Amino acid sequence: MWASLMLGGLLGLGAGAAQANEALLQLLQERSCRGCRLADVDLVHADLRDADLREARLMRANLSRAQLDGADLNGADLSFTSLRGASLRGADLRGSQLYGTDLRDANLSGAQLDPDALEQAHWQGAQGIAGGSRSHAALHNAGVEAFLAGNWTSAETLFSDAIRSQPQEPLSWVARGISRSEQAKDDLAAADFNYAASLYQQQGSSAWADQLKAAADAISQRRFEENATEEGSGIGSQLLGGAISGLRMIAPLAAKAFMPFGLGL
């Protein structure tokens, strides 16, 4: 039904427009369009189950909530394509370009993905992602997005997963510490900062190590002041505010350099 309506609309545009949309017509009629150029196409809610879209150029296409179960997207360019809420169960996404691709709330159960496929995609809320595709960078970057959206608990969980994947990467420890500080988990935040400081010290980055130690000390001082009888904001609270603000700028946002810009949360 959806395909018939879309097809009728395209044919009604005239011979020139129909010719220009030959690739789209082929896809809608035959569910096969290998190597087609379909950039910027609008296929919201499209039924493309088992479609052959190998090596198709689908940059910036809108495939939100489309049915792509079993579709072959091997080698397809899906850069900045919206697949938000789409069903991709059993789809083949190996070799596809997922730079800036919106996979939020998509169903990826049984989908085939390269190990690093999600590192530059947006996949919060996606279901069924195989563990092999949840690399450290993918997990950390997802944590960054959750952090920037103010979802501290989700960010903490994602950074924890990133740490388990690559425990010697200090940036994830810093980012988790900041997420925990936002939830007033001061002891845990201080522990993360101190451990990250030790990792940076091992790497010879003493400036980062010193800043993290200062943040951990500031948290401890804040806790001391909160337990004290005197009222008011002491030097510990002031130091904490400065230290955390500085870390917030350099730690989770540093990872944003690896993420595509321009996609709202």
Strand and helix layout:
Elements: H1 2-11, H2 15-20, H3 22-30, H4 136-148, H5 152-165, H6 170-182, H7 186-202, H8 206-227, H9 235-250, H10 252-255
Which fold name fills CATH's third level, the topology of the largest domain? Serine Threonine Protein Phosphatase 5, Tetratricopeptide repeat
Q: How many domain modules?
A: 2
What is the element string, with H for helices and E for strands? Answer: HHHHHHHHHH
* Stretches with pLDDT under 50, minimum 5 residues: 1-17, 228-244, 249-265
| Secondary-structure class | mainly alpha
Q: What would the average pLDDT be, to the nearest integer?
A: 80
**Fraction of residues in β-strands:** under 5%
Largest sheet: none
Radius of gyration: 23 Å
> What is the β-strand count?
0
Helix count equals 10
Q: Report the CATH superfamily of the largest domain.
A: Tetratricopeptide repeat domain
Measure the end-to-end span: 32 Å
Described by the principal axes of the CA atoms, the overall outline is elongated
Indicate the CATH architecture of the largest domain.
Answer: Alpha Horseshoe
